[in-house]
Specification:
The chain has 354 residues and is of the alpha/beta class. The chain contains twelve helices and 18 strands.
Length: 354
């Protein structure tokens, strides 16, 4: 059973497909849990990005996942049958310049799980051994499944230290909410979260934001400047992909501060005067995925130590067969959902469902 994109149009369908074969360097995973991502929504909606990006249909959707290794290829040595693993969704070639210089996450020949090859909304998944991350089994499946997007938040937040610093997170989506918790766990002293959805902003309070800013009602730049003696924030994480958010974020950044771009911009343009960036004198990062595997160690350690509690973000746990309802919840405005985790077998759905 797998959730398949069967045609170039809106929607997806559950289909029975054969259990896939593996190559010598691959593992077969019995999926316990997979979480929904905004990328999956783009594919489900079949928007302009999906139309230009998805090359092959039909195929299985989904990429944020965890499960049990049930078969290992003949040259696999790092994981074995019975291991509980999550999956790094950036699948590297292992021979390009980036891979050979410690930058596998931006591999020149990168494949993305659930985009360039069959994904994780299924009972079984095949991936190369290199992207199988062995888990701490004391962590419940729904949290193991979200380590990939949590890794985005960890990489963006901690690409430079945040302890003792003021941090602004622009965007109240799940990764923005994760970033609030990461900043709190790692010593940020003032944490601002901006957004538009009261439901998600309330989750931001639970995750540890000191100041919630509803941008429909308040001037975010003014609030941040007033709270930082007019200087602006030390760190700004742009996670919304909204043009106004980028402009506000740069205006709210102190001179010589640090700005991370993570949100994807619909028009693929820089909607702010470039001289504002030049004269700021700060450091500007583009965030693409997670460091392989430095970020994964950090994510695992934060979850295992219980220093980081991301359970407020996981608002819904549902059977995979309820995918249509899950996608509609993700699309609905105003938002009444954080992160949704889907289970092909409900016996792995801990503490009931929403």
């Amino acid at each position: 059973m797998a959730l398949r994109k069967t045609k170039r149009g809106r929607g997806a369908e559950m289909q029975e497909i054969p259990i896939p074969d593996i190559k010598p360097n691959e593992v077969l995973i019995k999926i316990h849990a997979s979480s929904l991502c905004g990328t999956d929504v783009h594919i489900y909606e079949w928007d302009a990005w999906a139309q230009s990006r998805i090359k092959t249909v039909p195929y299985t959707v989904g990429h944020e996942t965890t499960g049990e290794v049930v078969k290992a290829g003949s040259v696999v040595t790092r994981v074995k049958e019975g291991d509980i693993v999550s999956v790094e969704t950036h699948i590297p070639c292992l021979h390009c310049k980036q891979c050979l210089t410690g930058q596998m996450h931006v591999c020149h020949n990168l494949q993305i799980l659930g985009v360039d090859r069959d994904g994780a909304f299924a009972e079984y998944l095949v991936v190369p051994e290199v992207v199988a991350w062995k888990n701490d089994t004391s962590i419940p499946p729904e949290l193991l499944s979200i380590q990939e997007p949590l890794g985005n938040a960890v990489h963006a937040t901690l690409i430079e230290p945040v302890h003792g610093k003021s941090v602004v997170i622009l965007g109240d989506g799940p990764i923005g909410l994760f970033a609030v918790g990461v900043a709190r766990a790692c010593g940020a002293t003032q944490i601002f979260l901006t957004g538009l959805d009261p439901f998600r902003l309330n989750i931001g309070k639970k995750m540890g934001a000191d100041r919630i800013i509803d941008v429909a009602k308040e001037d975010a730049v003014q609030v941040i400047k007033d709270a930082t003696d007019g200087l602006g924030a030390d760190v700004v994480l742009e996670m919304s992909g909204a043009n106004q958010s980028m402009q506000s974020g740069i205006a709210a950044l102190r001179r010589g501060g640090r700005f991370c771009f993570f949100g994807i911009y619909k028009d693929n343009l820089v909607p702010t005067p470039l001289n504002d960036i030049v004269f700021n004198g700060g450091t500007f990062y583009g965030i693409n995925g997670r460091l392989m595997f430095d970020t994964w160690f950090t994510v695992s350690n934060l979850l295992s130590s219980r220093r980081l509690d991301v359970t407020p973000v996981v608002t819904h746990k549902m059977p995979l067969t309820s995918f249509a309802e899950a996608f509609e919840l993700m699309i609905e405005v105003p938002k009444k959902v954080g992160k949704i985790v889907l289970f092909p077998d409900t016996k792995y759905m801990t503490n009931g469902s929403h």
